[in-house]
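Tip: read the tokens left to right.
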């Protein structure tokens, strides 16, 4: 199925959860926030959030520095 991640089309398997998607994209998800179809998804809900065809996701990764 097709999802859109930060505006780019990506092919993923049906039944993919946000947790699975994130773990394949970033080494440390602690600084990641996700918006799905214009709604923020709390990290506590990532395991239960199964992606659907056409979902629009925005990933924001926070970077610290000084």
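Filled-in amino acids:
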């Amino acid at each position: 199925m097709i999802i859109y991640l930060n505006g780019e089309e990506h092919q993923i398997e049906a039944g993919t959860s946000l947790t699975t998607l994130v773990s394949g994209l970033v080494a440390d998800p602690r600084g990641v926030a996700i918006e799905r179809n214009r709604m923020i998804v709390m990290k506590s809900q990532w395991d239960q959030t199964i992606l659907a065809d056409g979902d629009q996701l925005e990933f924001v990764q926070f970077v610290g520095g000084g």
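The mean pLDDT is 93. Helices lie at 18-25.
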